[in-house]
């Protein structure tokens, strides 16, 4: 593959790729992803901390909520460029310019469709009318604002000669960034690479602007196409956290950024993103919009650095590079996760037991490993507390923790109430009732009251495992206790019960640790 085409443009280094984040606009306008203005502010803060160069905050002409969000974000964030989207209509441009008054570094993002399909069926405009509208709109806006991005909507399905004419007209009228969206995710890496090369080589004034790629993911090619656009000379990428966006979404920010970091020598390009903020930012968005990413999502999915198979775990224990191309810490995970389950080998079980303080002779390890394999026939994942139970033997009153006997929920209208009955480590019954903002909140409050353990939740998710009659809910949560993050899982046919089991998984581990510390102190007293 050829080296990236270098483009003499206003940026300091041709290999510094600007990250234009459109989570709050293209992402937010897709089903299930809407955010209130205060939520957008929280997300915008995180994006600024992450190092996004440009944050697109919304489409002010479309709603009061987008105007309010822009005003709030503009008041707070002075460093990144703040952009808003606008149609090529004087009334829309005026509204957008008013919204941008709040921004320290404003950018107006104008767009108009250029493809024959859109011209004929959506706009009902001729080529000449499109050209005139682009020139007039950019020139109109230029009287009020310097930083103008122009997007040729459905650009990748536009006739090449006409695309060049439109881009030339936008540049002549004052556009400073030219974005060529693959609006419907139709292009291929080869095509988009040559599209950008052609534009940069042949359009008059191309050397005065930054070219930008905006790829949708309908065929799962958004990141590959964006990388190819960079090879073709694009120096700005438009992307969203977790890849949210219209239909199958946009190019995922975390993926494009890590592709450029891990394969920087190949692409001869990098971004200014602080990659350690990728996972926290992804998780923040998941919580804000209530849309978890799939476990195997690149970079930010919970399996992205998890290893279960014996061969992989064995390799990882010898040298991480055998199965990891990036460090989990570099993207914001605490560490690699060795998931113990049916596919795990003796080496991984031994290593986990050592981490828990158990140093076993070969014969003891054989016995525990046999128990471990038997347990794996009953459950998918073996947690630390399961291993401790194996070590101490179930029901001996020492290794055991709290066990769930029953739980009842009641709906109180705006609030919910939960009653839990547990058997404590000595086999006594404890029952507590608590209220909360919803069933899960009430459940966790009741469990805290019954066990005396206060857990501060960092994340909580429920997934469905299996299909049809076998389907079960798996709840996973993580909590921070001091400097340590604990993860717990619980599986049941009932998701509320699975959530209770996940909570108790963590609480029991903490209690065992406390008991271990107390007996160590007694022994040394
Ligand atoms: O996908 C697209 O074409 C867009 C433009 C409005 C930039 O989101
Ligand atoms: Zn888009």
UniProtKB/TrEMBL annotation:
Pathway of action: Amino-acid biosynthesis; L-leucine biosynthesis; L-leucine from 3-methyl-2-oxobutanoate: step 1/4
Domain Pyruvate carboxyltransferase: 17-279
Keywords: Amino-acid biosynthesis, Branched-chain amino acid biosynthesis, Cytoplasm, Leucine biosynthesis, Manganese, Metal-binding, Transferase
Cofactor(s) listed in the protein's UniProt record: Mn(2+)
Positions bound to Mn(2+): 26, 214, 216, 250
Gene Ontology terms describing biological process: L-leucine biosynthetic process
Annotated catalysed reactions: 3-methyl-2-oxobutanoate + acetyl-CoA + H2O = (2S)-2-isopropylmalate + CoA + H(+)
Alphabetized InterPro entries for the sequence: 2-IPM_HCS-like, 2-isopropylmalate_synth_dimer, AIPM/Hcit_synth_CS, Aldolase_TIM, LeuA/HCS_post-cat, LeuA_allosteric_dom_sf, LeuA_bact_synth, PYR_CT
Protein EC: 2.3.3.13
Domain of life: Bacteria
A GO term for molecular function: manganese ion binding
SMART domains xrefs: LeuA_dimer
Spans annotated as Regulatory domain: 403-525
Alphabetical list of CDD domains matching this protein: DRE_TIM_IPMS
EC category: transferase
UniProt name for this protein: 2-isopropylmalate synthase
Native species: Pseudoxanthomonas broegbernensis
């Amino acid at each position: 593959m050829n080296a990236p085409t270098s483009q003499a443009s206003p940026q300091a280094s041709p290999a510094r790729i600007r990250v234009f984040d459109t989570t709050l606009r293209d992402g937010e306008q897709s089903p299930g992803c809407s955010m209130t203005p205060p939520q957008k502010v929280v997300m915008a803060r995180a994006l600024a901390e992450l190092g996004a160069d440009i944050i697109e905050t919304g489409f002010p002409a479309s709603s009061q909520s987008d105007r309010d969000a822009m005003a709030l974000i503009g008041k707070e964030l002075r460093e990144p460029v703040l952009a808003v989207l606008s149609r090529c209509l004087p009334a829309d441009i005026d509204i957008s310019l008013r919204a941008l008054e709040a921004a320290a570094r404003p950018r107006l993002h104008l767009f108009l469709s250029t493809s024959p399909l859109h011209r004929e069926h959506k706009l009902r405009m001729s080529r000449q009318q499109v050209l005139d509208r682009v020139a007039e709109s950019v020139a109109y806006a230029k009287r009020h604002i310097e930083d103008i991005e122009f997007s040729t909507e459905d650009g990748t399905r536009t006739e090449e000669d006409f695309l060049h004419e439109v881009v030339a007209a936008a540049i002549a009228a004052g556009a400073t960034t030219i974005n060529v969206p693959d609006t419907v995710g139709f292009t291929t890496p080869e095509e988009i690479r040559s599209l950008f090369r052609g534009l940069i080589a042949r359009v008059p004034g191309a050397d005065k602007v930054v070219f930008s790629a905006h790829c949708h993911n309908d065929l799962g090619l958004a990141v590959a196409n964006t990388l190819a656009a960079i090879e073709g000379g694009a120096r700005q990428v438009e992307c969203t956290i977790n890849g949210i966006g219209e239909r199958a979404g946009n190019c995922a920010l975390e993926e494009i950024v890590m592709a450029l970091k891990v394969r920087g020598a190949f692409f001869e390009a990098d971004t200014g993103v602080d990659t350690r903020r990728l996972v926290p930012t992804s998780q923040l968005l998941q919580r804000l919009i209530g849309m978890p990413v799939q476990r195997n999502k690149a970079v930010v999915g919970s399996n992205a650095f998890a290893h279960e198979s014996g061969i992989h775990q064995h390799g990882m224990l010898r040298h991480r590079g055998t199965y990891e191309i990036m460090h989990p810490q570099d993207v914001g995970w605490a560490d690699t996760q060795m998931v113990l389950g049916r596919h795990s080998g003796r080496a991984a079980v031994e290593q986990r037991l050592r981490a828990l303080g158990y140093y076993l002779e070969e014969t003891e390890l054989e016995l525990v490993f046999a128990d471990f394999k038997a347990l794996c026939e009953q459950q998918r994942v073996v947690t630390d507390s399961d291993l401790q139970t194996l070590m101490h033997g179930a029901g001996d009153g020492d290794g055991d923790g709290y066990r769930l006997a029953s739980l009842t929920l009641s709906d109180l209208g705006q609030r919910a109430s939960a009653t839990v009955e547990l058997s404590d480590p000595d086999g006594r019954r404890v029952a507590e009732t608590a209220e909360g903002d919803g069933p899960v909140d009430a459940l966790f409050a009741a469990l805290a009251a019954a066990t005396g353990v206060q857990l501060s939740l960092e994340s909580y998710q429920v997934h469905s495992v299996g299909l049809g009659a076998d389907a079960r809910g798996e709840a996973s949560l993580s909590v921070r206790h001091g400097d340590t993050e604990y993860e717990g899982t619980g599986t049941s046919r009932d998701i509320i019960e699975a959530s209770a089991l996940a909570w108790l998984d963590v609480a029991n581990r903490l209690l065992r640790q406390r008991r271990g510390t107390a007996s160590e102190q007694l022994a040394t007293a």
